[in-house]
Amino acid sequence: MTARGATPEPAPTAGSLNKQLFVIFSEPGPRQDALAAQIPAHLHYLIGLEKRGTLFMSGPFLDASGNPGPSGMLIVRAGSTDEATAIAAADPFHISGARSFRVQEWQVHQGRIDIAVDLSDRTYHLR
């Protein structure tokens, strides 16, 4: 609450990043039998997206035991939902029917990424 005539404080999100990204939810599809055969092509595709700067982060959801489950998530940089959908549709998991997908636009406001780079031995640590 502010006193009468006092300038209100800006909303906590006023200076936020406001970066638009797209989340691709990847769920089991009708052709689960095709999944194992598509893993190498899927990983190759993701690494290509990473090297082009399109893939922000990706990985499987974990089950209660900490093991990878049947679903996963990718976060991509794209100019539109249509572009993100095309990226998802080109994933070998989705082409084969081993997984289906849903694209959701996401706006990043807060968070932190810590990367330490040790120049002496060319190592890095992501926290």
Automatic annotation (TrEMBL):
InterPro entries: Dimeric_a/b-barrel (IPR011008), YCII (IPR005545). SUPFAM superfamilies: Dimeric alpha+beta barrel (SSF54909). It comes from the Bacteria. It holds the Pfam family YCII. Residues 21-106 form the YCII-related domain. Belongs to the YciI family. This is YCII-related domain-containing protein.
